[in-house]
Amino acid sequence: MDTTAKTAYLTKEDAVPAQPKLLAHPTAKTGLMSWLTTVDHKRIGFLYGVFALFFFLVGGVEALLIRAQLMYPNGTVLSAQMYNTMFTMHGTTMIFLAVMPLSAAFFNYIMPLQIGARDVAFPRLNAFSLWTFVAGAIVLNIGWIGPIFGVDGHNAPDAGWYGYSPLTSRQFTPGHSVDYWVMGLQLLGVASIAASLNFIVTIINMRAPGMTMMRLPVFTWMTLVTAFLIVLSFPAITIALVELMMDRNFGTVFFEVSGGGMPILWQHLFWVFGHPEVYILILPAMGIISEILPTFSRKPLFGYPIVVFSGACIGFLGFAVWSHHMFTTGMGTVATAAFALATMAIAVPTGVKIFNWIGTMWGGRLMMRTPMMFALGFVWMFMIGGFSGVMHSAAPADTQQSDSYFVIAHFHYVLIGGSIFALLAGIHYWFPLMFGRKVSEFWGKLSFWIIFVGFNVTFFPMHFLGLNGMPRRTFTYDPNLGWNTANFIASIGAFVLGIGIAVYFAVMIYTYYKGEKVGRDPWDGRTLEWSIPNPPPEYNFRVIPTVHDRDAFWYEKNNREQIAAERAVAEKAEEAHGGIHMPFNSIWPFFASFGLLIVGIGSTAFEAKWDVPGIHWKLGLSLLGGLVTLVGIYFWSLEGNEGYHLHLDKDGKPVKGHGDDHGPAKH
Amino acid sequence: MRFVPSSLVRGGRFLAALAGLLLLSGCDFNFWRMDGHQSTMTAEGPVARSQLDLFYVTCWVTLVIFILVGGVLAYTMWRFRARTEADERAAPPPQSHGNPLVEIGLIGASVLALVIIAVPTLTAIWYTHDVPEAEKKNAYEVTATGYQWWFKFEYPAEQAAVDAAGAKTPLVTGNELVIPAGRPIRINVRTVDVIHSFWVPKLGGKIDMIPNRANFFWLQADKPGYFWGQCAEYCGDSHAVMRFRVIALDEKDFAAWKEKQLALARSVAAPAAPGAAAPVAALRAFKTNEVGVSAAFDRNPLEAWRARQVVEKDENPALIAQGRELFAAKTCNACHSVRGHGAMGVQGPDLTHFGARTTVGAGLIENNPEQLRRWLRDPESVKPGNKMAKAYRDNKISLSDAEQVALTAYLLSLK
């Protein structure tokens, strides 16, 4: 290996000798180092999933504390300030650290398998996204340490997940909580944008032969739309956060009223990101449902082109409705009317999806397995959440509902009944593929029913609470307002829901170790990911498949001879080409992300009064972290794009001693 | 592929049905009751009514669609489910791909359904935006300003006395907005710090109070009444307890109220020779967040409000005089105004006629001797994070039992 710049056209004969030790490629296949250096999209997807589920549980505990506080009027479980911290962190955690990364886990793990690729386009960038996400999550949550050690001003963020200016200014929220929030979200944004660019390039460039855009599985389509939404919407919040950071730390006046700043500007910037974000959370879920329903109905998706176009249409319209979060800000009649109508319009493509899912099941043979139960739960719950969404589009009526519990009911029906149900369905659905084991139907269904009942008992009464005038984000309420019963029921439901989630994960963990082993393709799947052995080998596909139809694997199963002949030819061609090309592992993405973590903590948590002569912590650590990141990226680029080749025996095992001809990639 | 589902599916359905029955039958579980003080479902003015009517339109349209689509979905799930193991093992059904006519038809139907919602939405947007032209002359204007965490109400058209020499200033009150019933009220909303939102559910939807933004809206009460309001935009620690009231009075009562308000604060002559002060018992301890509103008040709040307009029966002029001195000595006057008593502070609510209000701490607890004393003794325990508690801490203010009683007597005398 050499350190000079190479192009992909160099062959190994051109390779120049001895590489400095520092740049030796990590080769660990097991143990901690193998996870820190992995560039395998499946391992990265798995890690995304593990972190996401951890934060899902953290956000869940925060939710239960909220419900414990509100179980009775004038509750005393939490102080006002701690309650405000809880709802801020519950929202931020669930959106950025649970649902988004859990979707990313599926994007990473499933999408390349669905398009017949061996990895994503930029495997190291993928690792960088993962570790930067972890860095962002740490920075966001570092404020919990403050109260534990009694350090004043270092509490967790408590200005709401939407961080409305000017409450977030230094004047109204002194201390460091908002700084953690700003820097944490900023890092998460970097991670999301890097990952999304990666997915876009992967889907556009790395499809197997014959996998035209209109043959892409719908989940992959929704991955693509979501990735575009992320790339286009995150810059808005990035700018807003930079402005807020400048206001707080460097005396600018973007939102500073005394300097002529406009707090309303924050709302526009935030929601121009925030509304597409809603679709970032729900489109992957719709993609998962569009995979599960056909599989368990044993029938192709009804109206595939319309489902795909409606998904893209939601993506476009998602950028045109942000101000429906601001119907009470006095926008004037014309703007209010425009956003109300646009919001109604977006209900059409959403409704189309529901019609097509029903059309998919119509005339099918519905196999009521656990993933299907969750998927059907999704369709029902999402429908209810969608209808309350349509109610919100009627702006004058919405001025009564906005910031009330009616809104809380609405978006939890969409985000739990929608996103979470779909993600839980997806975990059940792809579990056999990922781990080669299947969750027991009894325990899977049991957890479904507990979750389903708990969820509805929690959130259905909240519609009535909201219409009865209970505002959001209130740590207490008086007993004479008629809210006691509904709050009590909701809290009981929340604990049932908590039990359901606990059962769900207990079953998952048990299954991971002890579950029933299953063979390839246990659900009689329709898409390419089911065509490979489980758990998938590191190289995914022994032979890159050629795609002939929309449900590619269904076609393969019905045309075995044709496919076998094609495979044989393709395998020979690939072997002649040098074998299966695999990318090297690399520590540098982790290293670069670690630098960002140092920046994140250094620039937010340190106070001037802790400085010792000669050391300015804030500046010093920021510069150090930046340097670490630069060094990481520098060595990362020195590594070049080479990899190694695998040669397989007939069982799909790499042939020892033959698979390590480390050479640059050949294309 | 083992066939397992049905027993559990049936069990789940049974449980769900049972839960539904329980919820429907037991009157203790009536979470759908929507007749609270802040209910949006009992409109008591034209703005709230137009919003409620629109809500019903959206409700009925979506309900009908839900029944139709849900019905088809339920039928599909029932009709096409695999019932037996043989069903599961059977050859797959015909692999159909869709039906463009059906899909276009459904899209058309959805658009039509949305038009039913869109038309009244547009009408209501224009109607609720500002006082209708024909009513403009009759409209009454007030300005509501949000503070962390209370509301200031200003009457720009009413000039109140500031001192005996005849200086005037627009009338200002705090946390209780008194309006004439049957007249459109045009409200300018402002804020001095963060974003707040003005919301009186029975009279109309909310409008945000945003810095550097001159928002306004209007509402109207059909008839005299006492209405609950609440800040509806998260504004920091005490957001949940930033409440207020709107009291609508008929023209005669309103004029009488106004006349009283425009006058200087009521003064009670101190007795020439004050008797020896009786020993004062300590106030009982309160639980955290303890409710501060009595059931009697709750039953007829408008009557309770009227009762507060008259002078306290057991007034003690000596205590009142002592309290008035304390109001200055404890620097209460740095933040609060009492017109005519030399207190000119503007950071806290104007207290000129505080004794005539029904609540303390921004609509939080009832204005009676016990609750008021609870508030004066330790505001932080009643309303976490509030500015008065901060002033107590910063200026090391504490009140002895006797001082609490004297200040209470003084404040309640300000009718």
Strands in their spatial order, largest beta sheet of chain B: 3-2-1-5-8
Largest sheet of chain A: 2 strands, antiparallel
Total of helices of chain B: 12
Number of domains of chain B: 2
Q: Based on the coordinates given, report the CATH architecture of the largest domain in chain B.
A: Sandwich
Strand fraction of chain B: 15-25%
Rg over C-alpha atoms of chain A, rounded to the nearest angstrom: 26 Å
Ranges of chain B with pLDDT <50 over ≥5 residues?
1-5
Shape of chain A: globular
Largest sheet of chain B: 5 strands, mixed
CATH superfamily of the largest domain in chain B: Cupredoxins -  blue copper proteins
Could you name the CATH class of the largest domain in chain B?
Answer: Mainly Beta
Which range does the strand content of chain A fall in?
Answer: under 5%
Structure notes:
The complex is a heterodimer of chains A (667) and B (415). The longest helix of chain A has 35 residues, at 80-114. Chain A has helices at 31-36, 41-70, 80-114, 123-141, 145-149, 177-205, 218-250, 263-297, 304-317, 333-361, 370-393, 395-401, 405-435, 441-467, 484-514, 552-558, 560-576, 588-605, 617-639; strands spanning 437-438, 516-517, 580-583, 643-646. Helix content of chain A is 63%, strand content 2%. Chain A has 19 helices and four strands. The radius of gyration of chain B is 29 Å and the shape is elongated. In chain B, helix 2 (46-79) runs antiparallel to helix 4, helix 8 packs across helix 12 (401-413) and helix 9 (369-377) crosses helix 12 (401-413). By secondary structure, chain B is α+β, with helices and mostly antiparallel strands. Chain B has twelve helices and 14 strands. In chain B, strand 11 and strand 12 (343-344) form a beta hairpin. The model of chain B is unreliable at 1-5 (pLDDT under 50). Chain B has helices at 6-25, 46-79, 85-89, 100-129, 251-262, 295-299, 301-308, 317-329, 369-377, 379-382, 387-394, 401-413, and strands at residues 140-147, 150-161, 168-174, 176-180, 185-191, 196-200, 204-209, 215-219, 225-231, 243-249, 337-338, 343-344, 359-360, 365-366. Chain B has a five-stranded mixed β-sheet. Chain B folds into two domains: 37-85 and 99-263, Cupredoxins -  blue copper proteins (Immunoglobulin-like, Sandwich); 295-413, Immunoglobulin-like, CATH 2.60.40.420. The interface between A and B is large, with 114 and 121 residues.
